[in-house]
Design brief:
With 170 residues, this protein is mainly alpha-helical. It is built from 7 helices and 3 strands; from the N terminus they run ααβββααααα.
C-alpha cells in the first residue's frame, strides 16, 4: 500500500536513497554483513554489549551474540546510525548530547530496519501486519509497531483511514 498522504522525513529519504544506490530493494537484502560491507564497517558478534568503534580507518560494529538474531539486527541498525551520523565519544559528552544521539539512533533504526520504499507495498489493513513485518524484516514486533505509529502520526489527519486504527499489543 502506498502512502499518498504521508510525508517522509529527510532521514527516511537519505536512507532510501542509500539503499537504492546499493541495490537494497527487498527485505532479504537488508543483511547486516552486506550493509556493513557497503559502509566499510566490519560486523562481528561477541558475548558483550553492542557497540560501535572507530580506530583510524577501521570501523567495527559489535553485536551481542547472547541475544536472538532478531534483536541483534535491531542493535545493528542502532549502531550503524552512530557509525554514519555521529561523532564523539558518548562516555565523555554532555548528557543532553548523548540523549540527542540516542534519539536520532532510535529514529534511524526505525527507518533503516523498515525502509519506506520496502514497506509501502504492504497492506496495512491486514490485522497481522505487525507480525508480517516482523517476520519479513526480522525485526522485533515492538519496533514494527513503533514504525507504523510514526507513519500514522505523519499522515495528513483528514486523510487517515480506518485501517490505520491499530491497537497496541500488550
Amino acid at each position: 500500500m502506498r502512502f499518498p498522504y504521508y510525508t517522509t522525513t529527510i532521514l527516511e529519504d537519505l536512507i532510501t536513497q542509500w539503499y537504492k544506490k546499493h541495490k537494497f530493494t527487498e527485505p532479504n537484502d537488508l543483511n547486516v554483513y552486506n550493509i556493513g560491507s557497503e559502509s566499510q564497517i566490519f560486523v562481528t558478534c561477541r558475548p558483550t554489549q553492542a557497540s560501535y568503534m572507530k580506530v583510524g580507518k577501521f570501523q567495527e560494529i559489535v553485536l551481542d551474540s547472547r541475544l536472538p538474531y532478531i534483536q541483534q539486527r535491531e542493535q545493528f541498525f542502532h549502531e550503524l546510525c552512530h557509525a554514519v551520523r555521529h561523532a564523539g565519544r558518548q562516555s565523555i559528552m554532555p548528557h543532553p548530547f548523548y540523549e540527542l544521539q540516542e534519539r536520532d539512533a532510535r529514529h534511524f533504526t526505525l527507518y533503516a530496519s523498515l525502509p519506506t520504499h520496502m514497506i509501502n507495498e504492504y497492506n496495512f489493513a491486514n490485522p497481522a501486519i505487525v507480525d508480517q513485518l516482523s517476520r519479513d524484516f526480522m525485526i522485533p514486533k515492538n519496533v514494527c509497531m513503533e514504525r507504523l505509529e510514526k507513519i500514522k502520526s505523519r499522515i495528513v489527519p483528514s486523510f487517515r483511514s480506518p485501517f490505520f486504527n491499530m491497537k497496541k499489543e500488550g
